[in-house]
Design a protein that fits this description.
The protein is 4% helix and 22% strand. By secondary structure, it is mainly beta.
Length: 337
């Protein structure tokens, strides 16, 4: 014969007073199934089912029936009626508040609403707080506005700052001058200097580059002080005063003219006809300018290999130990006395 397992039960007590953890009980009075809560105490009892709950589920309907669960019909719809809330006063049928109320905002925006009871819309204007009492227009052609803004973006102060409409100019020469607003400042070039204005830029130019590495051409240059250069190249050079050359002087032209009345040369040997090379062919010597009289000279005769002297009318050979025998033959007669 099969064994029968019975749980605790009662016909007149709606809820058991105590159940052990996991112990079941059923009340025919409340039609509920109970269990002692696992891990709980003696009084921790939970209702977990029973005819009471299944009747509620079974009695659900799509109709508007009090104390019944709502059950959707075959189309997923249900009948809706009045939902009654447990409120005090006349809330279930009220269209307005019993006592009117207002809403107020303080701070940078001041606002107080009219009294309202919820029966209709209300409208009221807010007022920004005054953070700057200095109002009006600011700025002009001679002043700019100075604006102070706080962290909230509000203008807390406004003032103006004057704009200078004139400025002073000065130069190496002349007296200082003031350029007032509306006047024109003119840049004028000097000798050999041109000025050009374009796109708010004034350009000074002298017609050629004058950088430290530029090749510069001038017509006449007069230097009152000292002119120092490692390379001077010129077609003509004129020195009005004294010229002192501390290095070597090399003259590569075809003519060298010295118009000085006194010439002092430290060299004890003067080399003439220095550009001669190979077999010599040119006479060389010294010629003296005598004005209206015929010049005289002391020359080396290259074709004859002897020195000769010219006194303005006659050219004579100078006797030397080397040419004496070859130049003179016969008897040298000193005459008688």
């Amino acid at each position: 014969m099969a064994q029968t397992i019975l749980i605790k039960r009662s016909t007149n007590t709606a809820t058991p007073s105590s159940l052990s953890n996991g112990e079941l009980a059923y009340s025919a009075s409340s039609n509920k199934l109970f269990i002692g809560r696992p891990g709980g105490g003696t009084g921790d009892i939970d209702a977990i089912g029973g005819k009471h709950f299944t009747d509620i589920i079974t009695g659900a309907t799509a109709a508007n029936t009090a104390s019944k669960l709502v059950l959707r019909d075959g189309s997923g719809n249900f009948s809706a009626g009045t939902i009654t809330a447990s409120l005090t006063g006349n809330a279930s049928t009220a269209t307005a508040l019993q006592s009117g109320r207002t809403i107020a905002i303080t701070g940078d925006l001041a606002y107080t609403s009219p009294s309202f009871d919820g029966s209709g819309n209300i409208t009221a204007a807010g007022t920004l707080a005054t953070v700057n009492s200095n109002v009006g227009s600011f700025g002009s052609t001679t002043a700019i506005p100075v604006i102070t803004v706080n962290a909230k973006g509000l203008v807390t102060a406004v003032s103006t700052s004057a704009i200078s409409t004139s400025f002073d100019i000065a130069a190496d020469n002349g007296s200082n001058d003031t350029v007032a607003g509306g006047e024109t400042l003119t840049f004028t070039g000097g000798t050999g200097v041109d000025t050009t204005v374009s796109n708010n830029t004034v350009t000074f130019a002298i017609g050629q580059a004058v950088g430290t590495t530029s090749n510069v051409t001038f017509n006449n240059v007069e230097v009152d002080g000292t002119l120092t250069s490692d390379d001077i190249t010129s077609t003509n050079i004129s020195v009005a005063g004294n010229a002192t050359i501390t290095g070597n002087l090399i003259v590569q032209g075809t003519t060298t003219t010295v118009d000085s009345n006194t010439v002092t040369i430290g060299d004890n040997i003067i080399v003439l006809n220095k550009d001669e090379s190979g077999t010599p062919s040119q006479n060389a010597g010294i010629e003296i300018e005598r004005g209206n009289s015929t010049n005289v000279s002391l020359l080396w005769n290259e074709s004859g290999d002897y020195w000769q002297v010219n006194d303005g009318s006659t050219t004579s050979k100078l006797l030397t130990a080397g040419n004496f025998a070859a130049s003179f033959t016969g008897t040298l007669d000193g005459g008688s006395f």
